[in-house]
Design goal:
With 181 residues, the protein is an all-alpha fold. It has a domain of 111 residues. It contains five helices and no strands. α2 runs antiparallel to α3 and α2 packs antiparallel against α4. The longest helix has 34 residues. The termini are far apart.
């Protein structure tokens, strides 16, 4: 009869070796799953920190009167008379709103993956750059970029309103690294 293992680690090792023979190994190791879960939690935490800062900046911009209509202005109701309450939002306001929308969209999509496992998850938030008007977010965006190595965000067309990433484009070319403006 063989001598029993002398340490717990040897016992665990012999048990794991015997279990590996009996049960086929899963394609993703438990260590990799734990690392991925940790990285996902870190990504969510950084995005929530960024969103908190963005919301504070948006409220501040609203208080300064820099909020306004985002998107194309509707046609005037009467000939040549624009709506009196409608004015375009400032660039700073639009930049913050776009980033907030992109972050929330990414977070919502990743949260849905438990219910819809076949759903394509974007490789990261659509906007990965610091708003030019709010450099205080630089450290948080540096952390965010480190958590999404190789992903630089979607290239957004210049338009007056918030952007929604095109999921079909992401499915076709998930490794694209367009520049961010």
């Amino acid at each position: 009869m063989a001598a029993p293992p002398t340490t717990q680690s040897q016992a665990l090792q012999s048990m794991s070796q015997s279990s590996m023979k009996a049960v086929p190994q899963s394609p993703v190791s438990p260590d990799a799953q734990i690392r991925d879960q940790g990285r996902d939690r870190e990504r969510v935490a950084v995005l929530l920190d960024i969103n908190s800062e963005l919301l504070q900046e948006i409220v501040s911009l609203q208080a300064q009167g820099k909020a306004g209509h985002i998107g194309q202005m509707p046609p005037p109701k009467e000939e040549g008379k624009p709506e009196p309450d409608l004015k375009p939002a400032s660039k700073e306001y639009v930049d913050c709103m776009r980033r907030l929308q992109a972050n929330l969209s990414y977070l919502a999509t990743t949260a849905e993956r438990a219910h819809k496992p076949s759903q394509v998850i974007p490789p990261g938030p659509a906007i990965m750059s610091v708003p030019s008007s709010y450099p205080a977010l630089s450290d948080l965006y540096t952390k965010l970029q480190a958590l999404f190595p190789g992903w630089r965000g979607q290239q957004l067309k210049a338009s007056p309103g918030p952007q929604r990433p095109n999921m079909q484009q992401m499915q076709q070319n998930p490794q694209a690294q367009p520049s961010q403006g």
